[in-house]
Amino acid sequence: MKNFYRSSAPAQTMLLVALFLTLIFSLFLLIAAYGRQRDKRKSILRLSVFLFFLILLSVLADAFSRMTEGLAYRTWLPLPMWLLWCVTFAADLLLLWDMAGLRRLGKQALSRDSIKQALDMLPSGICYFTPSGSVKLCNRQMDSLFRTVAQSDLQTLAELQDALSDCDACSGVICLSKEMQTYLFPDGKAWRYRQTGVKASDGVVYTEAVFSDITELYNKNLELKAQIKRLNAISRELKWLSDNALILTREKEVLYAKTKLHDDMGAGLIAIRHILNNNQTEEAANAVEVLRRAVSAIKYDNAYPQGRSELDRFLQDAGAIGITVNLSGELPEQEELRHVMILAMRECLTNSVRHAGATTIHIMAENKGDSASVKITNDGRAPETEVVPKGGLHNLYRHVMACGGTMEIQSKPGFALTVVLPATEEGTK
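Now predict its structure.
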């Protein structure tokens, strides 16, 4: 087959055009691969292909120009046409394969556009500022939030800080907490602002500003506050009901004791009459003693003190039902602790009369500075079984727990109730 110099002009022209297109394709690939691939061997190969076709095209184009003008030329490359075409097609295939590899690499690698697109898809508002304070990278959410706050585009970090400090006065954005930097926007969403420094690989420190959506947490906090408010109201109602239950229980027990004394008085009168009729002196003395105690209890009840302290009323109630109270020590000054201890004393008073048949109860109160305690015993019968808190004792336990104290019940060898309450600063003054 003829070489390039002996071929026809149309064949030479077609080959030169193919070589020129291959050269352009090689140059384009060389530019496209610049900075995207770190494999030096491929970079050298691309540069070598480009220089080879540049030299080949220059030599053949110069000879073609001289042949066209009828000038003398040199046959630098007396290669057959088929070999030149094979080299051209092989180079084109190599460039196409290389181009496909760059395309696959471009889909896998991160670019500026891909980073910006990924940043725009984030639900949080994010912006990076240069050390001078100008915007380096900002996503759409941050742009939208800043326009709501300042009605302008974000340009510098100082603008963002000034807008957040004056947000209450300009755009309807409410600052919920300056310490936590939380803001409520007009659309009902709550956002928290955070600003930190980020150091890049080149050592430059950028400022990262982030708005995080805390709407769900904000709504849950509002619901929690509403529930706490309702629970406080319910707690007050329960405390009122518990106090009333204790009062009703106390009145019921006192009424039972008074009724028993009235019955004893009536039985004593009948017994005295019967004994006097039968001249039984010793039994008459015993009946008179029972009658005397009943009358004394009624006398105490009629002389019930009005306007006196809760402790005085307790002692009066004990005397009204014929119970002697031995009180040692001092009760705490704090009204709440004092009230709980007197409730415990009343509960033991009624239980000792009703279940143990006691005539005396012993109360030992003690103040230790950081706590106050009271221990209550009686001279009645010991419980046959283990005492389990129920009824009045259960209500008393709830009051003790509400004050942060402890309650201990002893059944053997005799009944004893111990209540320990923590003394607050108010109570120790």
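The longest strand covers residues 190-199.
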